[in-house]
Amino acid sequence: MKKVINNPDQVVEEMLEGVVLAHPQYVKRVKGFSVLTRANSPSPKVALVSGGGSGHEPSHGGFVGRGMLDGAVAGAVFTSPTPDQILEAVKAVDGGKGVLLVIKNYTGDILNFEMASEMAASEGIQVENVIVNDDVAVENSTWTTGRRGIAGTVFVHKIAGAKAEAGGTLTEVKLVAEKVIANIRSMGMALAPCTVPAAGKPSFVLAEDEIEIGMGIHGEPGTHREAIRPADEIVTHLMDKILADLPVASGQEVSVIVNGLGGTPIMELYIVNRKVAEILNGKGVKIVKTYVGNYMTSLEMAGFSVSVLKLDSELKDLLLAPAETPAFVQF
Amino acid sequence: MKKVINNPDQVVEEMLEGVVLAHPQYVKRVKGFSVLTRANSPSPKVALVSGGGSGHEPSHGGFVGRGMLDGAVAGAVFTSPTPDQILEAVKAVDGGKGVLLVIKNYTGDILNFEMASEMAASEGIQVENVIVNDDVAVENSTWTTGRRGIAGTVFVHKIAGAKAEAGGTLTEVKLVAEKVIANIRSMGMALAPCTVPAAGKPSFVLAEDEIEIGMGIHGEPGTHREAIRPADEIVTHLMDKILADLPVASGQEVSVIVNGLGGTPIMELYIVNRKVAEILNGKGVKIVKTYVGNYMTSLEMAGFSVSVLKLDSELKDLLLAPAETPAFVQF
C-alpha cells in the first residue's frame, strides 16, 4: 500500500483538520467530534445533516455551506458514523426549526442515523429522515437492503438545501427531498479498486483487461464483470439501465452528474459525458445542467457513475439556486 | 492499458465535445479547431488565452469563463498545440483590446505560442506573452530550459483574468501576470505514473514502496526517488524547497493550491493541506485562501503538488474577485 498518509488510524482526523484549515470561511469543527458544520451554524432555518463513512470526499463535509448542508458527520473509512457523533451534529446545527437527516441506504447508516434521530427527538429537537437509494445496479447488496445510495445524493443535498435556505419548513424540505429521491437514478462502473488504509490491500481484484459494472462505492459487487469495452458501449449499458427505471419523454428536463470515483482522469469523465449527452439529446431530453467531477468518491477507485435527475419547475429552480461550499459553488 | 475511452487517437476530440456538451453556459468550440472560448466571446476587454498539451484537465478549458480565461487551446495528450490552433484561439477571442498568452515553460509550448503571437501580430492583433515557471524542483528538464510551469499557472489565470475583467489594459494585465509569476512557487511528488492513451504503457515505473519527488506533470524526472515516507515528512521536504526559494516573513499573506494529479484521493490532499497549513501558520504567515482539488492533472497520475503565492493587496483583491468557469467558481 502506497498512500500519502501518516498513520492509517489517523486519516479521518487529519483529513478533517485539513478541511477546516483549508476552508475556515465555510466550515468549522465540533470540538471532539468528527463533525463539520457551517462556520456560522446554527442558523434560524431548517438544518440539513448528512454523513457516512469517510473515503467518499468531498462527500460529505465538502457540501457544508450556504445552500446545501449545515452539518456533516464523518465515520471511519467506509464505516457508518456512530449515533453519538450524529447526535452531536444535529445538536450543533439545530436552530429551532428542525433538522433533516439525509441518509444513504446502507444498513449501518440507517441504524445509526435513526438511533441518533430518536435521541435528538428525546432532547426536544424536531428531526426527520430521508433515505437515498439511487443506484439501479442491484437490489440488496453487501451492506444494503434494497438499493444503495450513491452520487445522486448530491442532488438531494443541493435541492433540499436550497429549499431550507429559502425558508421551507421541515415538512416542506423533507417533501422536496423525497421528490428528488423519487426522480434520481444512478449507476457506476470500476476499472480498478481502492485500498482502505487500515486494511492495507485492495477491496477487490480485477484482471488486467477486466471491469466491474454496477459495483458500489465501497467496492460491493455489481451486476457482473466483463472485458473492457469502448467507453460509448459502457455508457450505453449504464444509461439503458438508468432509463429503463426512469423513463424520460421528449421535452423532459434533467440534470446529470458524471461522477469520478477518485482515480479517474477528468478527460475520461468528459468522454463519458459526451455519450451521456448524446443519448439524452437523442431522446429529445433537455439537459439543464451537467456536473462533471469528483463528487462522491471511493478513495482512489478508478471508474465513474452517472446520475440522472428528472426536473420539474420546482426542482429546477432549487437546483439552480446559489450555493457556496468547499466543493460546490454556484451562483 | 485499461481506460474509459473509445479510441486513443480520438481522446482529445471526444473530451472537447464532452466539455461543450457539459458546460454550454460557459464555453463553446471554435469550429474545426481544438479551441474552447467563452460562450459569449469575444468581449470588449483584454482577452486571455492559455493552453498546452491535453491530459491536464481541467486545465485549460475548465478555466474558460468570466473572470479567468477567454480561450484555451488543447494539444494532443502531453503535446503542445500547433501555432495555427493557437492563432485561431487568439483571433476568436480578440475584442480589439489585445490578447495575453499565458504559456507554461516548455520548449514546445514557447516555440508554438510565440510563433502564433507573431502570426497574430502580422494580422494586426496586439499580443503579449507571459511564461510561467513556478516549479522549484529542477532547473532544465526533459522538455524545458529553466524551470517548468505547473499548477501555479492557475493563479495566473485567476488574477490576470480578474484584472482583464476589471478593464485593465494589455500592459496592465501583463504586468500583473508577471507579478503573480514572480511570487508563485510550486513542487510536486508522485506515487504512481500515468499512461498516455496513444503510448499504451506508463510513462515511468516506480517500485512498490517508491515515490518520486519533484517530477513534472508529464512524468519528467524529478530530483530523486525514495522510499515512501509519512505524508508530513514529504510535505515538509516540498515546503522547505518552496520556501527556500520564496522566503516568507511573519505577517505575509499567501494563497495555497494543493493540487491533485488525477489519481489521488481527495482525503490525501486534505491530509497534505493539514501539514502545509501547519508549516505556514508556524511561520506566522496568513493563509488568505486555500484551494484543494484537481486543478492541473497528469491523467491518472497519483500524487500532488503544492503551490504557494505571496500576495500583496492588489493580488489579493484580484484573487478573491468573482469567477465563473466550468472548474473554478467563486463569488
From TrEMBL, chains A, B:
Pfam families noted in UniProt: Dak1 (PF02733)
InterPro entries reported in the protein's UniProt record: DhaK_1, DhaK_dom, Dihydroxyacetone_Kinase
Organism: Desulfosporosinus metallidurans
Enzyme class: transferase
Pathway: Polyol metabolism; glycerol degradation
PANTHER family: TRIOKINASE/FMN CYCLASE, TRIOKINASE_FMN CYCLASE
GO molecular function: glycerone kinase activity; phosphoenolpyruvate-glycerone phosphotransferase activity
CC per GO annotation: cytosol
Gene3D superfamilies to which the protein is assigned, alphabetical: Dihydroxyacetone kinase, domain 1, Dihydroxyacetone kinase, domain 2
Protein's name in the database: phosphoenolpyruvate--glycerone phosphotransferase
E.C. number(s) listed in UniProt: 2.7.1.121
Subunit details: Homodimer. The dihydroxyacetone kinase complex is composed of a homodimer of DhaM, a homodimer of DhaK and the subunit DhaL.
NCBIfam families given in the database record: dhaK1
Keywords: Glycerol metabolism, Kinase, Pyruvate, Transferase
Catalysis: reaction(s): dihydroxyacetone + phosphoenolpyruvate = dihydroxyacetone phosphate + pyruvate
Boundaries of every DhaK domain copy: 7-328
Annotated PROSITE patterns: DHAK
Superkingdom, natural source: Bacteria
GO BP term (any one): glycerol catabolic process
